[in-house]
Amino acid sequence: MELGPLLESIYLQYHYDFRHYSKASMERRAAQAMFRMNCKSLIELQEKVLLNAEAFFDLLQFFTVSVSEMFRDPSYYLALREKMFPILKTYPSLKIWVAGCSTGEEVYSLAILLQEEGLLDRTILYATDINPRSLAEAERGVFALGDVQKFTQNYQKSGGKHSLSDYYIASIDSVKFDRSLVKNITFSDHSLATDSVFSETQFVSCRNVLIYFDRDLQNRVFGLFHESLCRKGFLGLGTKETVEFSKYANDFNVFLPEEHIFQKIEKRGGVKRED
Amino acid sequence: MKTDQINAVVIGASAGGIEALQQILPRLPKGYHLPIVIVLHIPSGQRSYLSELFLTKTDMLVKEADEKEVIKSGTIYFAPPGYHLLIERDFTFSLSTEESVHYSRPSIDVLFESAAEAFGTHLLGILLTGASPDGAAGLKRIQDRGGVALIQNPDTALARVMPEAARSLLLPLSEQVLSLEEIVLLLLRLKR
Q1: Which of A13, A74, A180, B86 is the most buried (most CB within 10 A)?
Q2: Is A218 in contact with B74 (CB distance < 8 Å)?
């Protein structure tokens, strides 16, 4: 399956850049999209999405992975609570960037954590994603009831101080999270592949997003995070992601190795260029 | 069966898989000339001790696969818990948190299908014991791309759903349904 022409034409027409995404996973998702969107070939899929923007956003649902859960990897959130927030508390105000927030599970988890640590009122959370449908979902703060049991277990393991149900109202098949959690969250359309930095932050959390990017794009994204983070700012990655083999390896210290949390080093050193 | 030009081995297993792998992996010598990539269904959300477990039991190198890692011979790789493991055409690993397949992440189908595209006729796929149909479609893809597809004899498997599912999907060939001992002997016979 040769995705090159499809991705190139999408970039030219819609300015969404998937050309530096890992190929095996993209091919799998393109095959799923072809099947679900009733296209017999990639050419047919390409024609469809170029002629019809709605069809393009349907395809985007396949190209952007929107599988997440609240407090995924509870030990990560426990580490934020116990090891990182005590340091963040020393700042008079906080800006946190959740990059690739998808349907919002991670940003709501952080908002709850910040609330319990007494930090939410002086924090602005930027939740960004390239998929407008995911962002709209995230903003609604509604999650399937079937997922809540898992979320609750995760919340408890992450050191939750109350009951997760204190933060939502349940209906027959879904739960809606309290609007007080959202008041300091700014949801916005932002592409790690094509856009630039928009704010200085103290903490960037970007989990299981970089695994979909090739090395070049990973380096670009680490560059954005490096630029956005203040001195001694923190970068939280997924359990299989690291800054260590990137061009920015020398610009971060490993803060918590088990949880893949890094800290921008104080002195603004030269950027490591291997190539 | 064309086994003279195999460049990689992929193995999938679920229920009973640890026991089955314990009968295969310790028999392979240090520096075995092929990479072996394994998806074994395990509960997600906790650390996997599979690589530690097998590290002490085999002479080959054993590790959890990392994203963008170049696949090397003489090494046994396990999929990390909670992630699909895929093989790229440049013979590096990718990870993904896409939805589960047959309720599993990692999924055997996802590994096998991507490996089939990357290695084509140079791939050997082995599906062992398991109580899930995951892996059958992937093994079929390996066969469709000209690779070699092997199934543990369901009569010798702790759970027969997985090998049965594959057997009903594959184009039947001789020497395709094997006991664990026969699988070991075949692996040891593969030429450099």
Answers
A1: B86
A2: no
Residue B33 is a catalytic residue: no
C-alpha span between A244 and A232 (Å, rounded): 17
Q: Classify each residue of A92-117 as buried b or exposed e, where b means 16 or more C-beta atoms within 10 Å of its C-beta.
A: eebbbbbbbbbbbbbbbbbbbbbbbb
Cβ neighbours for A186, distance < 8 A, ≥ 6 positions apart: A124, A125, A126, A127
Q: Is residue B162 part of a domain?
A: yes
pLDDT tier, A274 (very low <50, low <70, confident <90, very high otherwise): very low
Confidence of residue B52 (pLDDT cuts 50, 70, 90): confident
Chain B contact for A28, CB < 8 A?
yes
Contact B82 A67 (CB under 8 A): no
Q: CATH number of the domain at A74-264, please? A: 3.40.50.150
How many structural domains compose chain B? 1
CATH 3.40.50.150 residue ranges of chain A are 74-264
Tell me, what's the pLDDT at B45?
Answer: 59
Per residue in A14-46, pLDDT (tens digit) is 999 999 999 999 999 999 999 999 999 999 999
- Asked about B14 being catalytic, the answer comes back as yes
Chain B contact present for A253, CB below 8 A: no
Domain at B138, CATH number: 3.40.50.180
